[in-house]
Amino acid sequence: xKDIFYQYIETxxxxxxxxxxxxxxxxxxQEDLWKRPxxxxxxxxxxxxxxxxxxxxxxxxKVHGALPKSMQTYFGVDDADFFACxxxxxxxxxxxxxxxxxxxxxxxxxxxxxxxxxxxWFGGGQDLTPYYLxxxxxxxxxxxxxxxxxxxxxxxxxxxxxxxDEYFWNTHRNEARGLGGLFFDYCKANEQMNMKxxxxxxxxxxxxxxxxxxxxxxxxLDIDFTPLQRDWQEIRRGRYVEFNLxxxxxxxxxxxxxxxxxxxxxxxxxxxxWRYDHxxxxxxxxxxxxxxxxxxxxxx
Length: 300
Prior knowledge:
By secondary structure, this protein is of the alpha+beta class. Helix content is 42%, strand content 26%.
């Protein structure tokens, strides 16, 4: 399974980066191949200062070796080895009318000291973080997510949409990071789904990403914006940074397993503001976004 999934994310990375370069029209992805001293490595691709994308990364990795002590405590196991691979992407467009997007699809195995698999699971999802609320965009993104889920289980969309709303919640701000999407983790073999079934589900979600996001980018990328709207984008990016550094499990896992720091932090936007006690004007477009972030809604 680990070989099948890694081959899948290699192909998916190529597909996504090619499409994003086509949409941007100017910038190209810079590629870094890196190795992890403890075992494994990855292929990081970053795009910067483009016509459409101010910064973005589409990274794949596969790492393995002894499970660090901090992660043994987290998983409640003694000496164990692990294998983890996945694709992680974050895109920060230049135009504040185009939303930031994040996605991740991953696979994990844990072994005893004889090399026997003692646990394995899939995880992942995709979520949208706009700076200005276009309800049609939210409906499109969530409808595409639902279509991918419905092909595998009638309850997957509602279940993983709810988990996404719960996961991407900035508790110290009492608001969501964005408009959500899907979030699933610890997807293990059970009576209804074997590991091949889970692979089929996760790969269907991965394959739906471009369909979910690119039409939104094309629709919004040429809208004019003001310096004040750019300021708002940078203020909201600050909340994005706060979530990733304080709450995000993927970031924390990478740091605790001696992951490659440049790849882990590629999710951070290049221009950010933290204004003291900033509140948008009541009734403004900015305030409309905050209302939805504080009260997540069903889009489909």
